[in-house]
Amino acid sequence: MKLPLIAANWKMHKNRKEAREFCRAVIEGLPSRDLQHILLAPPFTCLETVVEAVAATPILVASQNCHGETHGAFTGEVSAPMLADLKVEWALLGHSERRHVFGESDELVAKRLEGALKQGLKVILCVGERLEEREAGQTEAVVARQLQPLENLRDLWQNIVLAYEPVWAIGTGRVATTEQIAQVHRFIRAAHGPIPVLYGGSVNPGNIGEIMRLPEVDGALIGGAALDSGKFQAMVAESLKAKGGSEHP
Ligand code: PEP
Q1: Mean pLDDT across the stretch 224-230?
Q2: Domain containing residue 148
Q3: Whole-model pTM?
Q4: pLDDT exceeding 90 applies to what percent of the chain?
Q5: Residue 19: pLDDT above 90?
Q6: How far is 218 from 216, CA to CA, in rounded Å?
Q7: Per the domain annotation, does 173 fall within a domain?
Q8: Ligand 1: residue whose CA is nearest its atom 7
Q9: Is residue 248 in a domain?
Q10: Is 192 a known active-site residue?
Q11: From the candidates 95, 97, 104, 238, which is the catalytic residue?
Q12: 4, 222 in Cβ contact below 8 A?
């Protein structure tokens, strides 16, 4: 995995044809050395298609969630061994839509994190405060609480990337200021230094350069603006221009 990492979370968008077209456009449109900075998180139904479409490239593929157990009576869930069977090596965990739309608690996310890592997956763990928590001055306390499970997993930190995604900035068009981003990233770095930290929340081609120029930011997790292959390519190019490109420590 190469930093900066530019990750696309497609959420519940794209069928297999659209997924294939997106991959083809990005592979043809960017210099091949840029592809090592890309991670795609399609819906479960497109995972195999995307794995096949990017097989000859260093593009990484992630599921948008993963259960902590290997198998069992968990209707609607998929496990790390099932993802490994598709050659999917990464999973997003704790995305704010999972926490706040589907009610995944800190405890549940912690179980998923531990299970996924112990079964060999690499994980992008999303954390971030809600608007009322920020307004109550609780941002750092919330982020610290969401990162607490990392303490028991130190031997697996090399398989973790963090994503700071303030809930109020996701899908709202309201991006955090560079000061707000830098402050929380510095706070996370103080406790979990070696783990890369991405920023996510209404990132788009117009604001990504400014965000990526922050030394505290190791990449971006992008939803809405990453659905369009042209915009996504522009954001990868802009990020690499801002950072120059650097290898994972
Ligand atoms: C996301 O889904 O992680 C995200 C940051 O979405 P958006 O870029 O649309 O705010």
Answers
A1: 98
A2: 5-242
A3: 0.96
A4: 94
A5: yes
A6: 7
A7: yes
A8: 223
A9: no
A10: no
A11: 95
A12: no
